[in-house]
Amino acid sequence: EPSCIVGQGRLGLLSEIQTPVKTEPFSEHYSLMPGKELGRGKFAVVKKYVEKCTGKVYAAKFMRKRRKGQDCRLEIIHEIAVLELATACPWVINLREVYETPSEMILVLEYAAGGEIFNQCVAERDEAFKQEDVKRLMRQILEGIAFLHKNNVVHLDLKPQNILLTSDSPLGDIKIVDFGLSRVVSHKQELREIMGTPEYVAPEILNYEPISTATDMWSIGVLAYVMLTGTSPFLGDDKQETFLNISQINVSYSEQELEGLEQTAIDFMKSLLIKEPELRATAEDCLRHPWLEKPAPLREGEDISNAALGQTVSLPPNTGDQVQGESE
Ligand code: ADP
Ligand code: MG
């Protein structure tokens, strides 16, 4: 389901960028790699390119400047500005350069070879994320979001299609992409009515109430649910039903999908899927949540307990066998 912007003002957009905008032909410096495009949204298409002089691979995001008869160059400049602001954060995709043609802006981005985490979320259970993977990736996502929130940026479109992986097997690190709906939140101005993707949208968006960093935290709760279970907690048969499920917080924690999950994982989701934005956990709170606490590193010769592994391990009773654990 594509994201859409219902209404947009000039509120919350950054307008200053440092990256020089090149007007020479993009194809002079990059050649298209064979294969299918990496992704496509309503107004953008992302394709794999190789830089001619270095042989390095990049993802080029081609963004139309005119959308529905409106000039959207300022929105694109904002997206570039947010990427620049997040350069210091390892969990946000890197921007290399920017080109402009009469109809498009081209963002040359670091290539995330592992694709969207979406693929693993919906995969068969044996291909899907293990609970330990979800924890590691969720920590990275939260560190990325904490960085943005510290800088008063809300992403507003967090979903498995906008979280990419540096590699897929072995499972790499995450990269947050797509700042097309992101906004700067300030205490002076209230921001409302930016619409994300139905399944991941917070109740305050549906109720036309102010948007804040807590709006992203709702989506993190949905994301955790999807990564852990492979099912979308509020998804209905149509948009109306999905919206109704969200506004009624119609989510059950006793479903069969949740079987085998740690209680702390369920507590984590419950701390985010709360109607009142001000009661939701912040990104910093989440990083301190017991579910995401790193197990204490094991010392040489130390026994491994189930608790230390954070997952169920069956040990043969009283065989005196040594269990090898990885220490980080
Ligand atoms: P849109 O605003 O159209 O959703 P995105 O920035 O989300 O644009 O890009 C669309 C899709 O393209 C992503 O969901 C992802 O699958 C792919 N994509 C985007 N950036 C990259 C990248 N740097 N590396 C690899 N794939 C990417
Ligand atoms: Mg996207």
Structure keywords:
single chain; alpha+beta; seven-stranded mixed β-sheet; globular; disordered C terminus; binds adenosine-5'-diphosphate; binds magnesium ion
Q: How would you describe this structure to a colleague?
A:
The protein has 328 residues and is α+β, with helices and mostly antiparallel strands. The protein has 9 helices and 14 strands. The strands form 4 sheets. Strands 1, 2, 3, 4, 5, 8 and 9 form a 7-stranded mixed sheet that branches. It has a 3-stranded antiparallel sheet with strand order 10-12-13. α3 packs antiparallel against α5. The longest helix has 20 residues. The radius of gyration is 21 Å and the shape is globular. The N terminus and C terminus are likely disordered. The structure holds adenosine-5'-diphosphate and magnesium ion. Adenosine-5'-diphosphate (ADP) binds next to β4, β5 and β9. Magnesium ion binds next to loops.
Coarse structural class: alpha+beta
Hetero compounds: adenosine-5'-diphosphate, magnesium ion
From the alpha-carbon coordinates, what is the Rg to the nearest angstrom?
Answer: 21 Å
Strand content: 15-25%
